Amino acid sequence: MTKLKITFCEPSELLDTSRFAALGVTAVCARIYLLDIPDMQVATLIHFVRDTDFGCEMRSQFWIIVPGADDIARGLHQHCMEEMGNLASILPDLYAENTA
Q1: For the residues 65-72, what does the mean pLDDT come to?
Q2: Read out DSSP for 27-90?
Q3: Are 67 and 89 within 8 A, CB to CB?
């Protein structure tokens, strides 16, 4: 297991956000570093979120920026699968409770 530090940043640091509000979109952005080597960025993350008729849709992308970081990529993939599985099990009820 690779221990990572996630540092969130403003979407405008990575994206042109000038039309986000008009399009009903937003993003959660972060830079990912090795915990033991804080100055070593290993990846960039963008969770891109758009409004839909039934809530919102999120698409996530990671850019691994360290050559040969297969373990990091596998770990991030596993983390995302677990995180999205957990969210899928709680978000529909949460949405229903807050949109009645």
Answers
A1: 86
A2: EEEEEEEESSSTT-EEEEEEEEEEEETTEEEEEEEEEE-STT-HHHHHHHHHHHHHHHHHHHHH
A3: no
**47: Cβ–Cβ under 8 A, 6 or more apart, which residues?**
27, 28, 29, 58, 59, 60
Can you give the pLDDT at residue 70?
87
Structure-token pair, residue 29: 């952005």
* pTM of the predicted model as reported, rounded to 2 decimal places: 0.82
- As a whole number of Å, the CA-based R_g of the chain is 16
For the chain, give the percent of residues with pLDDT over 70.
100
How many C-beta atoms lie closer than 10 Å to residue 76's C-beta?
Answer: 20
Ranges of each domain in the chain: 4-98
In this predicted structure, the answer to whether residue 45 has a pLDDT above a threshold of 90 is yes
82-95 confidence digits (pLDDT tens): 999 999 999 889 98
